[in-house]
Design brief:
The complex is a heterodimer of chains A (803) and B (61). Chain A is of the alpha+beta class and 803 residues long. By secondary structure, chain B is mainly α. Chain B has helices spanning 2-28, 37-41, 53-60. Classes of the chains: A alpha+beta (803), B mainly alpha (61). The A-B interface holds A 48, 51, 55, 107-108, 110-111, 115, 119, 128-131, 173, 176-177, 180-181, 184-185, 188-189, 192, 195, 211-212, 215-216, 219, 222-223 and B 1-2, 5-6, 9, 12-13, 16, 19-20, 23-24, 27-28, 32-37, 40-41, 43-46, 48, 50.
Amino acid sequence: MSGIEKACYHCALPVPPGAHYLVEIDREPREMCCRGCQAVAQTIVDNGLTDYYRHRTSMPAAGHEVVPEEVQKLALYDHPGIQKSFVRQEGDHVREASLILEGITCAACIWLNERHLKQLPGILQVQVNYATHRARVSWDEQVIHLSKILEEIQLLGYNAHPFNAERQEGLRRQRRAKDLRRIAIAGLSAGQVMMLAVALYAGAAVGIEASTASLLRWASLILTLPVVFYAALPFYHSAWNALRGRRLNMDVPVALAVVGAFIGSVWSTSRGSGVVYYDAITMFSLFLLSSRFLEHAAQEKSVEAAENLLKLAPAMAIRVEQDGQHLPVPVMELGEGDTILSKPGEAIAADAEVIEGMSTVDEALLTGESRPVPKSAGARVIAGSINLEGPLLLRVTSVGENTVLAGIVRLLDRAVAEKPRLAQLADRVAGHFTIGLLVLAVVVGATWWWLEPGRAFEVVLAMLVVTCPCALSLAAPTAFAAAGSHLLRHGILLTRGHALETMAKVNHVVFDKTGTLTYGKPVLRRIVTFTELGEPQCLMLAASLEQASEHPLAQSFLSRVTQAELAQVQDARNLPGKGVSGTIAGLRYSVGSAAMSGLPLVELPGDLPEGATQVWLCDAQRALAVFVISDGLRPQARELVERLKTAGVRITMLSGDALEAVAHVATEIGIESWHAAQRPENKLAKLQEFQQRGDVVAMVGDGVNDAPVLAGADVSIAMGGGTQVARASSDIVLLSENLLDIQRALQAGHDSMAVMRQNFAWAIVYNLLALPFAALGMVPPWLASIGMSASSLVVVLNAMRLR
Amino acid sequence: MTQILFFLLGMAVVMVIIAGAGIFWAIKSGQFDDMEGPAQRILMDDDDPLIPRYADSLRKK
């Protein structure tokens, strides 16, 4: 790419040569890259929201024009039957709904949306949650409709989808509130009890009246009650559940320590002599509750973000009416026997039977099988599976709201349930540890009972408290929570538990080219025709064929023609990695790579730009035209490659594109190992070759054709703007779209593993050192509780370094 | 000595109860739902009106 290209003022993509889209912002004309960005910028300026450009800290996605067709689609949201599922009625005209905002990149985006909506008449309240990108809007039905609100958001260049907040979010909010209440109780108690404990320690050192000491102990006892009987309840629950299932988990020793220490302390308090552990109980509960809360919060954020992505799955389907018209309808309105059209790259809206068309379908979300399944007339398809190749005409066989839900639930479960292997290890270690400890406690107790019965209880208690595996139980969750929230703050979303752990081992990164190293927004730069057909006709033919394709190149054709110009295409076939063919007005055409048509090549003019992709339009006999398309490199690509190289990571680029285009990009950013013209199966074979050599491979991709490769890699990274299939089959999603974040994720993997290892080492060493002294009765009570708190604190602080 | 301690400890317990009630109320009213928003919101200039204030006052007259 040449350096003289200007960047779009709105979205920072390069402005294509010859484009002339100006908007006056802050009294200066600014250049935009397309009509979409121009329209968005104009809306922002017209509404007096230019402050957005001053405050923003990252670039939005390129704007797109709101076409009447989309507005029509939005009108469906005003239908009372559809609103039932996500709109709450408050009073006669007041409605409230929750919306997922798509396209938020920084705080200024949220400001922009809030402020613009607040200006609209009839809007009563707007509140956008910064963490989840979800908005709660309430409006007066008499003045404004939901479709208008959604349209206004689209005018600003964002997308809003209503969703049902009650079901998942309601539950989550309740649980979060409960957790927070427990932490608050533990925190308040810990503060007071610690204060009194200091007085008692000081008294033990310089002398204190017995009556005063007793008073302080009773006060501590009262302040500890809410912790033991309320805040620590989750530990008991989890421990009880584990014991009932004949397992031992981390919470068994935790619950044992809390209850044991409390009973012992109450006994000492009532006797007026002996040791109290109130401070240790409250402090430890506070630490453990907070670190689990943070871990939960990070995980929930990931789940919510994943949900936001999945919500883009079909809420609407294209129904083919009796008169052949294509009508967008909400999935909820589909009935058995309806005919719907499924486009490649989109999820199928309902369980259905194929009437017409041939394609392959990815059912990985439902079956776990990542290989595409071929489907032709008569075959059955499952709702939520993803159509990969060609358009399909389907007859709906069954409907139900579990269409998208199945996918959501799968992704959710996977994210939440898949604990990192190290955390599981911690649970196992805790199990062995607890058994060992209990056996030892019995032995030590019996020995002391035999030697000095008066001290037996006290010594056993001190031993249980000192060796309480708090540090061990905190080691993994704190590290994981800290690293997860650190990454999320930079727009890196972990969707599977093992992602961080595997990232730490990665020594080979494989990139896709289009959409990953480049923007994936190719621009049609030139058309060369070879026959009597002129440029406009060739463009129309190519664009009509490309309708059936999900390949990023397709958009560059479609954006150049209006919907009305497109011709009807019959029997469209999408060959991934090659192109599309179809019949228009009785003639067979193909558009795609030079190899696709199998026709002899035509000599090209010599002045074509280097590194550009050539797309050939052919009929059955000859080549009609060649389209020259090129794509902008992401600016961080070169730096990322450099950084990865210095980190000693091997880099390979696998692309389905033509040799010259790939070679050009490879030399541009300094990748030595690359393979061009790779079809998905070739890519997967290459990947497996690397893995057999012993490499741990991270695959970065974005497109439909990357999905099998992403699924096959040890750890996979998808761009946030990529297709749904790619995101669904990946472990990490780069919401930020910033390539350097790949290196950040690698680094975070290394760091968190290092911290986990340090934490484990510390916890084990501490326990091994403390145990013999405690068993010998040599640990004074104050040292036991300080040791217990300090060992946890060290682990927590060590993990906080990751943030 | 002991009397004042009784008083102070009682005060401490009462304060904890008040603080706890305050936090429970804050949690219930949704103040902890969005931990990042307020920090960002304060930085944005929301207060320059699109229609100058004097125009507004003219209209009222």
